[in-house]
Amino acid sequence: MLANAWGDTVFPANQYASFYEKLTVPKRLELRPGDHATPELTGLFGLPNDVWTDTRRWLDHYLRGVGNGVDREQPVRLKSRTTGAYEGYPDWESVTATRRKLALTDSPTIHANVDSGADGGIVFLSSILDQVARLPPTASLPLLPRRWAAVWQSERYGAAQRVRGTATLHTTLTPSRESGTLIAHLDDVGPLGIGELVTHAPWTWHGRTPGEPFAVDLDLFSTAYDVPAGHRLALVVDTVDPLYAEHNPSGAQLTFSSPSDDPSYVSVPLGEQ
């Protein structure tokens, strides 16, 4: 039995899901809002806690032989960051019913070493706020300085979009230095341009030839988040985030492009409506 948090800053949910899929024994995967060990915290004080309850049921069945039905339940159990409701799936692959691509058609150049304001948050604090109050990190997209942030946005969605699983970024990057760091943020953008963080991930490279383009494929951290009707999704890429150490030399620049034979995009996993 594996239980973890969507915002775990020590062991990302992606690692748990990948390990879970490789197991060939009776197994269960539970993911909830929060950070490292915060969903389980109240159980330490004897208070009601879903993780502790499910763990006891799992151990009762598989160690003591208790017929409590845990073996007949959907083995993948996810708690939405938006609604707080639980969802059951037969396996991790079934979490994503379909995918929708957001094309990244422009070719922006950004400068490194300055935080644009689009961040993954503060260690523990941001994920706990998301867990307790459903308040993810936010940023005003119209105010993000394009000198330090590349921004792409979808059209407004006519219906709610249930983001479930692992979004992936594919793009072509031309750096001005041999090493560097970028952080990709996927935001839910409301009518006033305020973006709430859906997911993100950092990526660092070394030993590249300056001025020579190369492909970037990045898995963003898995999540369960509902984008309301009338909102957009936006991808914001910059080079500094308080959650991470970065390796951008002074004066570095990053240019993103979308060649006709290898278009850039974000692939967003959508669950069933």
Percent of residues in beta strands: 35-45%
Low-confidence stretches: none
For the record, what is the CATH homologous superfamily label of the largest domain?
Galactose-binding domain-like
What characterizes the major β-sheet?
6 strands, antiparallel
Query: Would you report the number of β strands?
Result: 17
- Helix share, percent: 10-25%
Succession of helices and strands? EHEHEEEEHEEEEEEEEEEE
- Tell me the Rg in angstroms: 20 Å
Termini gap: 28 Å
- The CATH topology of the largest domain corresponds to Jelly Rolls
Global mean pLDDT: 96
CATH class of the largest domain: Mainly Beta
The tally of structural domains comes to 2
Q: What is the structural class?
A: mainly beta
What is the CATH architecture descriptor of the largest domain? Sandwich
Shape: elongated
Helical stretch tally: 3
